[in-house]
TrEMBL record:
One of its GO terms (biological process) is amino acid metabolic process. Its cofactor is pyridoxal 5'-phosphate. Belongs to the class-I pyridoxal-phosphate-dependent aminotransferase family. This is Aspartate/tyrosine/aromatic aminotransferase. GO terms for molecular function: identical protein binding; pyridoxal phosphate binding; transaminase activity. Homodimer. Pfam families: Aminotran_1_2. The keyword Transferase applies.
Length: 398
């Protein structure tokens, strides 16, 4: 008997999630996982926020149905997304917001929309970018090209190169992928003045910005982290924003995200909304309720909102403190390693500058797991094990 599946080849492991599988299988009791982008407390656990636990209690007491949501999701959640992302910058009738299963789900819907509705469009993505970005666009059969982002020193933004690539190489009307804040994997963000220059090139070339906004609140604060996005929207009439609440609400496993499409007017917005809903219908049909209901419950209550903001600020400041501690501890090793450039980086990740060979040595000799590019999840560090980490990093660099 012929087995059809005998021709199926084993897929290569995911470059990031595959590391977690290797980490889980590692018998070393002192192992460290600094690869996957999740926040951890000092004990190494990814905590459930107090505001989330309280919201869930209220939902259990009040929930009366497990019926399907509409294709575009909960009305109150969608309004929360619009307010948090755009503030008063864009009139509500110009924004179509659809609840999505995480930021990844939102990105796939955006990619399918661009491929089906804007068939001649190519999307320009930064070098480097999150490893799943090109995979998502490839799966949607959306053509891609790259623009420069990380400088030759691997510690700074190559703004001239970025602007030149978009100005000289991108075709008028193409799309451009931007990280709204806390660039993944580098942690290197444009300044406010940089964003103005980027916005001008985007407007001059009539590029469509696709903004991945997965870390709002983890850089400089909720409002401050939206400056780049809103600066771009001052110059253009159209954009797509993909939001995730995995990080800032700690709802990683609940898959809480949204896609927001900004159109020039209400009529174009509704036409685009109808096409986005069609794409959703043939993909996952409608979004999950629980995570979105948690967010909506928190943001509908002043006391829960205040508690959530306190918890978000505590996570943000702890990440900053860990980054500073890493820099100071590396300096204290006495081997002359200057990692002060990490202090200019923002969010969960830092681009360490470690080579693939050094990364492999960290894993094989010390059971410390980081991504091959040298990206370190700062939010996975702990103060109590900082010296151990830095000693290991110093050893593979010597």
């Amino acid at each position: 008997m012929t087995h059809r599946f005998s021709v199926v080849q084993t897929a290569p492991p995911d470059s990031i999630l595959g590391l977690t599988e290797a980490f889980n299988a590692d018998p070393n009791p002192d192992k460290m996982n600094l690869s996957v982008g999740v926040y951890k407390d000092e004990s190494g656990k990814t905590p459930v926020l107090k505001s989330v636990k309280e919201a869930e209690k209220r939902l259990i007491d009040s929930e009366t149905s497990k019926g399907y949501l509409s294709i575009d999701g909960m009305v109150e959640y969608r309004e929360d997304v619009r307010r948090m992302v755009f503030g008063d910058a864009i009139a509500g009738e110009r924004v179509a917001v659809l609840q999505a299963p995480g930021g990844t789900g939102a990105l796939r819907v955006a990619a399918d929309f661009m491929r089906t509705q804007l068939p001649d469009l190519r999307i320009w993505i930064p070098t480097p970018t999150w490893a799943n970005h090109p995979a998502i666009f490839s799966a949607a059969e959306l053509p891609t090209s790259t623009y420069r982002y990380l400088g030759a020193d691997r510690t700074s933004l190559d703004l001239p190169g970025m602007l030149e690539d978009l100005r000289e190489n991108a075709a008028t009307g193409d799309a451009v992928l931007l990280h709204g804040c806390c660039h993944n994997p580098t942690g290197i963000d444009p300044s406010e003045d940089d964003w103005k220059q980027i916005a001008k090139v985007i407007a001059d070339k009539q590029l469509l910005p696709l903004i991945d906004f997965a870390y709002q609140g983890f850089g400089d604060g909720l409002e401050q982290d939206a400056v780049g996005l809103r600066t771009v929207l001052e110059q253009v009439d159209e954009a797509i924003v993909c939001t995730s609440f995995s990080k800032n609400f700690g709802l990683y496993s609940e898959r809480v995200g949204a896609i927001s499409l900004v159109a020039a007017d209400a009529g174009e917005c509704e036409a685009a909304r109808s096409q986005l809903k069609r794409i959703v219908r043939t993909n996952y049909s409608n979004p999950p309720r629980h995570g979105g209901a948690i967010v909506a419950t928190i943001l509908a209550d002043e006391s829960l909102t205040a508690l959530w903001k306190e918890e978000l600020e505590a996570m943000r400041t702890r990440i900053t403190a860990l980054r500073e501690s890493f820099v100071q501890t590396m300096e204290s090793t006495g081997k002359g390693y200057d990692f002060s450039f990490l202090l200019r980086q923002k969010g969960m990740f830092s681009f360490s500058g470690l080579t693939p060979m050094q990364v492999d040595e960290l894993k094989s000799r010390h059971s410390i797991y980081i991504v091959g590019s040298g990206r370190i999840n700062v939010a996975g560090m702990s103060e109590s094990r900082m010296q151990t980490l830095c000693d290991a990093v110093a050893s593979v660099m010597s």
